[in-house]
Amino acid sequence: MDHTRRVYNDVFEMLPGPENPSPLVRINAMSVPGATLYAKLEWMNPFGSVKDRAAWAMIRELERDGRLTQERGIVEPTSGNTGLSLAAMASARGYRSRMVVPNKVPLEKKVLLKIAGADLDVINDNLCPSPGMGDGSIGLAKTHARAQPDKYAMPNQYENEANARAHMETTGPELWRQSDGKISHLFVSLGTCGTATGCARFFRERNPDVKVVAVQPSEGHDVPGLRNKSELHVSALFDESLLDEVMEIEHELAYTRALDLSRREGLLAGPSSGLIYEGARRYAERDPGAVPFGVMIFCDNIFKYVSNMIKHMPELAEGTTA
Ligand SMILES: Cc1ncc(COP(=O)(O)O)c(C=O)c1O
Predict the structure, then answer these.
(1) Is the C-alpha dihedral spanning 214, 219, 222, 227 positive or negative?
(2) Residue 262 is a catalytic residue
(3) Atom in ligand 1 nearest the alpha carbon of residue 300
(4) Against a cut of 0.70, is the pTM above it?
C-alpha cells in the first residue's frame, strides 16, 4: 500500500501500523527546559482515537474465529472510544453492534455511538465500566452475550489479549521507527491498560532502558476511559511489573492542560492527554536532562468533551448565543 499518496480502497487501509504511523509532534511552547517531549496524536486514526488499534485487533480475531456473521454482531461495555471504533468498523463490515455505556460518559460520545450505528444501553455505573459489578456495564454486556449467544459476541477489551497485542505490534514498533530507536521515555494513561502493557512488552524486548511511566488521575475524577490505581485490579491486562513508575495527578488538571495544549500548542487534545502532559512535565522537571526523547500517547482530541469542558469551565459557554 502506498501511504505517501494516501489513496485507499476502504477506511480500514487507513488504520495505523509501522508503515502508516500516527503522527509524532514535538511540544514547543509548553516544553520543559532540558527535555524533549513529543505527542503521538492518536486522534489522527480513522475512527478518532487510540482505540482503533485494539478494536481492529479484536474484530479481526473474532472474524478469524468465525464468531462474527450477518446474524451475530458485537456487544461491548465502553466509556466511548472503543465503542465508537467497534461500532463504526462493525457497521462498515455489515455487523450489528450494541454498546453498554455508563451514564456519566459525555453526551457527545453517546450520540456518536448512535451515529456510528450502535444500539445503546445507558446505565448507572462508574465512568469507566467496572468489571465484577453484576449490574454494571461489563455485567450487562456479559448478560447480553450469555443470554443471546446467536446475536452477540463480546470482544471484552478488559480481558482480551488482542488489545495489548495490538500495541505490541503497532504502537511500539511505530515509536521505535519514528524515534530512530532514540525513545527514552513513554508516558501513558491507564484504562484497560492495553496501551501500557502492550507498549511496555515491546520495549522490554527491544530496549529495556526505555522507561514506561503511567499517569493516573486522582480519585473522584471525571476523565472517561481512565482509571485510578485503586480501580485497576479489575483490568486483567494491568501488569505493574512492566511499569517504571505510576504518577498520580490532581484530576482537575486533565481539563486545564487540555485547554492549554489547544491554546498554546495548537494541539486540540482531550483530557486524558492533558493529564499525561502534566505527568510528563513534572517527571521531566524533576531531573533536567533526564528525558532526551519522551513520547506521550495523546489518546483522543477534545471534540468529544465539549460538554465536560463547559462543566469545568462554564465561561467557555459565555458569548455562544445571539
Ligand atoms: C481517552 C482515553 N484515554 C486513555 C485510555 C486508556 O487506554 P487503555 O485502555 O489502552 O489503557 C482510553 C481507553 O478507553 C481512552 O478512551
Answers:
(1) positive
(2) no
(3) 1
(4) yes
Domain 11-45+170-312 has CATH 2.60.130.10: no
The grid cell for 151 is: 446475536
Asked if residue 81 has its Cβ within 6 Å of ligand 1, the reply is yes
Atom 16, ligand 1: residue with shortest CA distance: 225
Per-residue pLDDT tens digits of the chain, which is 322 residues long: 889 999 999 999 999 999 999 999 999 999 999 999 999 999 999 999 999 999 999 999 999 999 999 999 999 999 899 999 999 999 999 999 999 999 989 999 999 999 999 999 999 876 666 655 445 888 899 999 999 999 999 999 999 999 999 999 999 999 999 999 999 999 999 999 999 999 999 999 999 999 999 999 999 899 988 988 887 776 899 999 999 999 999 999 999 999 999 999 999 999 999 999 999 999 999 999 999 999 999 999 999 999 999 999 999 999 999 9
Measured in angstroms, how far is the CA atom of residue 77 from the centroid of ligand 1? 13
Distance 284 CA to ligand 1 centre (A): 23
CB contact at 8 A, 47 and 84:
yes
Question: Which class is 67-153 in CATH?
Answer: alpha beta
Pocket test for ligand 1, best of 81, 239, 261 (most atoms within 8 A of CB): 81
| Residue 214 CA to ligand 1 centre (angstroms) | 12
Q: Give span(s): CATH 3.40.50.1100, the chain.
A: 11-45+170-312, 67-153
- What span, in angstroms and rounded, lies between the C-alpha atoms of 196 and 190? 7
Q: Are 79 and 224 in contact (CB under 8 A)?
A: yes
